[in-house]
Amino acid sequence: MNLDPVIHAPVRLQIVSLLAAASEAEFSFVRDNLEVSDSVLSKHAAALETAGYVHIRKGHVGKRPRTWLKLTDEGRTAFRDYVATLQQIVGRPLTDASQEAS
């Protein structure tokens, strides 16, 4: 039971989680929702793109350049597997160490 190290970084997990709920999201929307800088989001989005989990599309709205992020099918599967692994981990009964010592 291993957590995917590509997704495990907190900002990447937030990116993938946000994108899992949308077909595509504008860079500024993701940045503002995660409350991170452009450079932090760019760095983590590039790592997710390299892993094949996110597709980055650049274009224009009018004359303004825009960037959109989209979770790939591979990214969606990786996120589902990641969440399933977390559920297995946290689904285990919690024990109180002080009661076990009694």
UniProtKB/TrEMBL annotation:
SUPFAM superfamilies in alphabetical order: Winged helix' DNA-binding domain
Pfam family, one: HTH_34
Superkingdom: Bacteria
InterPro entries referenced in this protein's UniProt entry, alphabetically: WH-like_DNA-bd_sf, WH_DNA-bd_dom, WH_DNA-bd_sf
Domain Winged helix DNA-binding: 11-90
Gene3D superfamilies with a match to the protein in the record: Winged helix-like DNA-binding domain superfamily/Winged helix DNA-binding domain
PANTHER family, A to Z: BSL7504 PROTEIN
Name of the protein in its database record: Transcriptional regulator
